[in-house]
Amino acid sequence: EFAAEAGFRLGSFSEFSLLVVVLGFSSGQISEQASQLVQWVTILSFVIFSYAVVMNYQTPIGTSERLNKE
Question: pTM (2 decimals)?
């Protein structure tokens, strides 16, 4: 159970992917369209996974008594 929760919490794309994409684009290794696609997917995964964690796991900003963790 702990491993599943940890995997879910860490499952989104990371900020590192944004850095790699910017470097790839600036060096001409990837196109502007590919860069934008990765950036959008990364930002979307931040939003979705953040929402899912707050709604399903205990956090200091839990949405109910069951999900609040002091």
Answer: 0.67
Q: How many CB atoms lie within 10 A of CB 9?
A: 15
CA atoms within 13 A on the CB side of 19: 3
CB atoms within 10 A of CB 21: 20
**For the chain, what is the total number of helices (H) and then of strands (E)?**
3, 0
With b meaning 16 or more CB within 10 Å and e meaning fewer, what string describes 39-62? beebeeeeeebeeebeeeeeeeeb
| pLDDT for residue 3 is more than 80 | yes
